[in-house]
């Protein structure tokens, strides 16, 4: 059924594209009226002080709404995953926590927790019925992208911290971070297999291509983590 | 086809009150924007009025426009056109008079093509504005998901969801004609 629907969708898209054409209109007349209206002082591109625009109002209203609803919403949104309606709020909450002056070790812990929650979201989606529609495919895509982004953030943070610790001779602390990175890499291996399975099962070519391309980036991040671990293992003195 | 670099040069001049430069910008994009507006309004005079409004807003707000990497100037114009359309849509009568929906074949540059796909235009007209807009931007204007997202002020994923729903809704409207 999905294959049939996909074919129909593509047929409709082709019809939309085939029906494209230009329509006649009074191009010169409008230009004349436009240039005349541009002479009005209120339409001057410089030095025109406007009343608050619709866009400004929307932004201000949005900020006010966010502040008012923030506390309760953060609590409700804490469990939401990529693709959920409150995920953006959850993500904002996470970034807010990361922007606090945390101790470096704590920051890495928080980052690793975020990665874990993203990977768990991958698992939850995998449990859902694969025959469900494009909405689930889009949720999968967003989950892959968010997983990669948070994983990359964690790998970069850990790599940077380990370099700092090595340079200041704090080798034990640097070694402690190896296990964090190693755990994340192993978790990433499992999720890469799951995501690859989604690619194989999808019957929508464009979604398949998108997930495949996101998976490639995900695997690059995982390989970067592995390279960091290999570098550390090579230079750590053995007794 | 005018290159984006040339457009940006015109924009830079127009920002310095160069009306000739702005008139060239109008000449470059007027047809495309008119097609976009007419597709939703199905009324020539209203589309022409809104087209003038769009360019007037562009002229008035040029000082706020900042070129961005990977974003064309036309995307900004389409954004203005989209919001102008939404504002107009909110103020229009809930039921449009029959004589306000014109038979656009008389204005089509390829009347036969228009008649061949008239069923498609009629079905599109019955969809919500957001559905019409995403289908127009993606498949008539041939814009990328990223450009459509910027114009409609949504995320890329939201555009994909909207596109998926719009096609499904159109398919339902078309019924047998979709096959």
UniProtKB/TrEMBL annotation, chain A:
The chain crosses the membrane at residues 55-77. Keywords: Membrane, Transmembrane, Transmembrane helix. This is DUF5667 domain-containing protein. It comes from Candidatus Doudnabacteria bacterium RIFCSPHIGHO2_12_FULL_48_16.
From TrEMBL, chain B:
Residues 26-93, 123-172 form the RNA polymerase sigma-70 region domain. Keywords: DNA-binding, Sigma factor, Transcription, Transcription regulation. Pfam families: Sigma70_r2 (PF04542), Sigma70_r4 (PF04545). InterPro entries: RNA_pol_sigma-70-like, RNA_pol_sigma-70_dom, RNA_pol_sigma70_r2, RNA_pol_sigma70_r4, RNA_pol_sigma_r2, RNA_pol_sigma_r3/r4-like, WH-like_DNA-bd_sf. GO terms for molecular function: DNA binding; sigma factor activity. The keyword Zinc does not apply. CDD domains: Sigma70_r4 (cd06171). GO terms for biological process: DNA-templated transcription initiation. The keyword DNA-binding applies. PANTHER family: RNA POLYMERASE ECF-TYPE SIGMA FACTO, RNA POLYMERASE SIGMA-70 FACTOR. Belongs to the sigma-70 factor family. ECF subfamily. This is RNA polymerase sigma factor. It comes from Candidatus Doudnabacteria bacterium RIFCSPHIGHO2_12_FULL_48_16. The lineage of its organism: Bacteria, Candidatus Doudnaibacteriota.
